[in-house]
Design a protein that fits this description.
The protein is mainly α. Helices cover about 50% and strands about 5% of the residues.
Amino acid sequence: MPRRAKPVPSNWTPNQIVAFNVAKARLLRGWTQEEAAKAIAPYLGTLLSTASFSAIERSVDAGRIREFNADEIVALARGFRLPIGWFFTPPSVWERAWVATPDTGDRGLDPEVMMDLVLGTADTLEDWKQYLLSWPNPAVRARHLPDGRIEHLGRVQEDVHPRLDEHLRLRFRTLLRHHFGSVDQADETFASFRAFLADLDDPVPDNPEAATPVGEAPAPPAATAD
């Protein structure tokens, strides 16, 4: 008889979500477990055995859960060439997995809340953006010209906080897909709404009685004598 698949746990710990996304990252790159271990080894400082890497991916099945530390997640991000947020992104709703946290008990945390923690919200991103404003290196490149003038060649490092704008755009696109199905469908809905508002803005005739009732054609003009 074929082996039955193990049931997906109703609640996944953040460590299980990381393990789940390690497997997704490996499939995304088309690597074997051995190749993935070699890719992250320079950043991890050690070469994981195939058995150790397999144990990471198996921890999603509610067996022995692999606990990751910050150093390991940075190594994973560098080795797989993916942002750190990739590894904390909750699985899709089709996985029926909520996030197990101490404060939510058996209920679990809504995956959308986890997504807010990964992508940020308009409120939390603003605080991060203000923090990043103090981060960039103010040094600039310069060249001394023969006449003694100094030509500025631009900053050594560009500001990083504008990158958060892309996070906001991604979040808005996600919300649009959730509520409208796609960006195109949302655009069609907004276009219809704009047309509706334009109809509301039409001026009311001075003589309401002369207005043509809805659904009726206007009366033909009266005949004039030659």
